[in-house]
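Mods, move this if it's the wrong board.
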Amino acid sequence: MLTYLKIQNYGLIEHIEINFNKGLSTVTGETGAGKSIILGAISLLLGEKADNESIKNKEDKCVVEGHFDIRNLNLKQIIQAHDIDYSNELILRREYSLNGKSRAFINDSPVSINILKEIGEKVLDIHSQHENLLLKDRKFQLNILDLFSENGLLLEKYRNNFNSYLEIQKKINSLKSKAKSNLIELDFITFQYNQLQEANIRVTELEELEAELGLLSHSEEIKQSLSGIINNFEETEDNVLIKIRESINSLSTIASFFKDADELKNRLSSINIELKDIVQEINLKADSIEFNPIRLEKVKDRIDLYYSLLQKHQVKSVDELIVIFNNIKQRIKEIENYDNEIEKLEIEFSKVLVEIKNFANKITSVRNKNKLNLEKRISTVCKELGMPDAILNIVIEDLQELNSDGFDNVYFLFSANKKIQPMPIEKIASGGEISRLMLILKSIIAEKTNTSTIIFDEIDSGVSGEIADKMGDIMNSLSEKTQIICITHLPQIASKGKSHYMVYKTNSQTFIKLLNQDERLLEIAKLLSGKEITEAAVVNAKELLKNCH
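Not the wrong board. Structure tokens:
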């Protein structure tokens, strides 16, 4: 429950601090006194957008702080999950300044606005005047049925699976789109791949071909040079080999008396052997070299192919060309693998679809099981609130398709007159009927939820007299479990409060105070008679307070 509220530098409020009590608290005040300003400030604790125009003193920051007793709420796990220290008192604070800087705190720990909203909505529910319009919204009507049916856990499991279903569907559509758009790319890169594969390129081949081209292009020149070398060694009468043999023989004749002759002879013999070997190899090379115009053309064509591919793929080396070939090969594999990936995802999609349909059917079953009870509860309380012939029917239609809430389209049909067939609420219910229905729904749902504080902002709009008195009784009964703070302009409801607060304006500043018994009597009398408080109004006010307390 809300135990303490501080508002600083907001709207017409310079600084107010107020303590709240258990049970039903009523808040009254003249039109324009600032009740809606206080409500707007409190809404900041629920993550509502901050408005710079609401800052009273532009030099200072706006601060709104609320203290909540959460001993009876199961919030420890949620709070600690956000690395916030837990205690029995929850402190929500919002600060913002003219420069647009907005900060949020929970138990003095800085948090995001989203976390403030998440935690704030667990402890506080604000029913503003415009919220009556929500009753005409079919999504809101569905949520009411689900809250009454206590469908929360089942819906959470369903939505987890539904999100997976949407994610898989998104992936499948993306892959199909890619597969379709990549058909043109596939044709092109397949052509490139085939061209490179047919080329059968090797890392060292271009270098080898260029060496061979040089050999074939100069074969006659090479052959002539080699033949000349051979001639120098073998053909002439004074060739080198003959001269070496003669030198070896000369050394042999002087070996007996020239001690270095043997060593020199051995060295010459080695040279002779090496030269003979070289000459033999040159002979073989010369015999193997032959001008081959056919091979020359083939080598040239092959080299041209390499340079053509290098230029086409804008690279400078065969190594880079091979990398491109491998990349193209991998890309083709990826594109051709889309079908396999799509097939796998479609199998997974089918499994998830079965699961979510099972959950959706369970949710529909629970809704159908509980709708009659909710209809009866609403109709019963409608009678207490001056609508004895009221009928509310809950229609559950099969949408034949899935959404985040299951298969169902849920809407309420209402009639306050037995002579008129029930119709959608948005087409038939008056403002007063909407107010009563909203209070009924809030009171029923409060039994199913764990919200500790509900603030009603003139939920009594469009009603008066005995009906207002009955609405006050419902709020009073509801306040036994949930703290109720009701902003009202009706004396019948104001008198029901265990505590009564008055909002007033002095010197263009808004204030709020807890009324004592005498002040309360005069305030209720003023609600009965207007600014001029009559003796009869005071008597009636006393009677109202006496009957309520």
